[in-house]
Every structure is written in C-alpha cells, then in structure tokens.
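User: My collaborator and I are trying to settle a disagreement about how two of our proteins should look. Neither of us wants to argue from intuition anymore, so we agreed to look at predicted structures for both before our next call. Could you fold the first one, then the second, and keep them clearly separated?

Assistant: That sounds like a sensible way to settle it. I'll keep them separate. The first protein:
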Amino acid sequence: MNSSSTLQGASGAGTALVTGATSGIGRAIALKLLANGYTVYGIGRNESGAPTHENFHLLLVDLTDASAVERAVRPIAAELSLLVNSAGVAYYGPHESLTPQAIAEMTAVNVTAPMILANLLLPHLRTCAGTIINVSSVTAQSSSNTHACAYGATKAALSSFSGSLFEEYRKHGMRVITIHPDLTDTNLYRNADFAPKNDPQYSLSAEEIADCVLLSLSTRSGMVVTSFTVRPQRNGIDRKPHGE
C-alpha cells in the first residue's frame, strides 16, 4: 500500500475512532491514519504507548464497561466518519481451563464493545456515508480452533455481525469491512503458551494490518472490499518456556 494513495475521508477531513490505539494493531492503525491526514480519537486502557501527535486524542476507557464506552463516545459521535474496532483479547487453552472472567472479558471486548460502538455511531455514519472496519481473526473462518474455542467464537461473531451490518447499511453508501489477520507479532498472545515466530515468513506485523486498513479506504466510492484475509507465507509458532 502506497501511503500517498488518495484515502476517502483523508486530506484532513476525516475523523476516526480507533479502539486499542495504545498498542499493537490499534496503535499501528492510529499512526497510519494520522500520517494520512486523519484526526484520531483512540481508546486505550492507559496512556503508555499512546501516539504523540497533535491530532491524536486519547480516551481512557475500559471496553468491558458498556456505560463508560457510551459516556466517552456519545459526545464525539457526530464528528466521526470512521470507526476501527481493533482492540482484542484472547485466552488460550482447553476450554475447561478458562475462567468465567476470561470468557466474559473476551466476549465484552471482541464482540459487545464493537456492537455498542456501531450502535452509537451509526446514526451519523449513515448520514455521512462513513466506514466501519472490524479487525477480526483468521480463527473466525475455522470451526476447529483447538485451545481457542471461545476466542474463535467471539471473532466468528464479530465477522458475522460485520457482514450483516454491511447488508443492512450499504444502501446508505456505508462501508463495513472485516480484516482477518493470521498470526501477528503483537501482545495478543500474552495469555498463551506460544508466540508467533520472530520471522516475517511466519508472522505478520501490526503495520501490515494497518496497511490493509489504508488499502480498504483507498477504493473508489461505489466499490467495497468487504473482507481481507491476511496470512504469513509459512505456518509455525514458538513455544514459550514453561512458566512464561
């Protein structure tokens, strides 16, 4: 993706809301949007890692708290032309090994928060022919997510929601786009006994997923690439030493 491509809503006219904007894929997306003329409101859990840019505004919000999400976002809803749901959380292991709290957190961050944000922003995004981009996972496309049953289910729900939302709002000129990354070198795997190999043949970078966002925004009005699946060429992981 050539960052000089014309982006719909760029040239300083677009305002985006990006979740998970202080780390990983969300931070990479926020930085790419800022570099392409967007004003970005970024939702994060803390100030550490927040982009330092005059057009970046941090919203410290716990995405598991629906009321807090609504309080933070409703006042800026009419400014926004782009919503990027990129925050995500994963817990891995046999399903019986997960705690109820872990399951609830994954459901809240990966499914409920994107649905609430869409609900809050759709009245304006509909009138301005805006865009929603949901960062899902390649696990959403599989029914065999061993040791990731719950995580895969939440991402499948997000992808299903995205597809239905596009059909519901396409008549208004709105785009709803889903990105399905495979293994990406981020902190998502902090609750796993494995990590992506530190090798670009075996894992993607957060910046590459951000490039997919730019690519999806660069299409002409009237054309929508509704889904990206992005995978490294090779397949492999590194097992963490016991206790990490």
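The second protein, kept apart from the first:
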Amino acid sequence: MAQKARILIVEDDETIGAGLVTALEHENYNAVLVDNAEDGVTQMLAEPASLVISDIMLPGMSGLEMMQQIKRTHPQVPVIMLTARTDEIDRVMGLEMGADDYVTKPFSVREVVARVKARLRDHNIDVSTPKFYTFGDVEVDLSRRTLVKAGDASRLTTHEAGTLAYLIAHRGQDVSRDELLENVWGYTVSYSTRTVDNQILKLRKKIEDTPAEPRHILTVHGTGYRFEP
C-alpha cells in the first residue's frame, strides 16, 4: 500500500486548522497541525512533509519567514499560503518569495483540498525536457533543483526551476508571460506579469555571465522570453 502523503498545516485558528485536518484526512492524507511557525520549521526538520499549508499571520515568526526557511532546506516541497489579506501586492509578494499557491480567507476547505491535490500532482517538473541539462558553462539538475555555473553551485526555487524547465522544453521558441504563469504557477489568469519578470531576473543572475546582456534567456519585446542554449 502506498504511503500517505504527509501534509503539514501551520494555522493558529483552531477552527480553521481542525477543519483542514478533517478534510485532508477524509481524502486519505496524513495531516499534521501546529499553531506556530517555529513548530512548523521543527516539524519539517524532524519529518519532512510532502506539502505545507500555512497562514501568513502567525504569532512570532510569520508564515512567509517560515516558508523561506523551509524552501532553503526543502526547495521541492510545495507551500500553499493562507491569508485574510486581499490586496494583490500581498499575493504577488508571497508568490515572489517562493510560495507555490495562495488562498484568501474566507475559503472553502474543498478549494484548499483541490489545491493540495493539484500541487502534489504537478509540483514535480513534468515537461518534455531532460531532468539534467547542460548549456554554456551551466549544469542544471531540474529534479533536484540545483544549478552549477563555472563550478559555483546554487539552488533553484520551485518557480525558478519550473520557469527554466519550461523555457528549455520550448528552447528557440517565443514564450509569453501568460503562458509561463499558466504552466509554471498554474494560473489561467495573470496575477501579475511582474511576477514572471522577477523570476527571469533571478534566473539571469544565476546563469548569465552578464545578466544585463543575456545570452540564454532573451527578452522578446511585446511577447515574453526565449531560451537559447
């Protein structure tokens, strides 16, 4: 029998936390609930989860700070952020800091469960490109989300790896920002094309000799980007 996926829930509202635990366990997940970010980090170090659901506003360390710590040690683990905030800038900030998805309160637990299923299904890179790819003086392992340039190693965030994988899979082709948002972030409606642009800037710093004059990730004005090996 396949092992149940372990879902870590970090939520200080007892009613919301208990509701998520019940709904996820009904779907045969192993749900673990803690009420603060520090315990969330401890749980991930002791027994890493397959996915993390976290409120942003928590006592002590914020959910965003916790997410950054988790992503440093477990970059492949998807993180879904919960928040009562409705301003787009907060959503964009969370996504740019590494969150894989974002749900605004109040929400239906069915919606969160659907997001969990989607992220567990597709957080592994699943595009027509090799997991290990070399171009110029860059070696990238997309399955491990690691990159080595001229001997210097660095880690890729989930979205950096997904963006690079998608561009490599479509090398030589023009790829729009909306296409990247839909296929890497999973949004059919653009939250902000700036989100994609910021990911590209971060990738260029890791792979280009001169990020301001890129050789591999080229800007296609009026469209988006194109990858050239």
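Some points you might bring to the call about the second protein. The radius of gyration is 18 Å. The longest helix spans residues 193-207.
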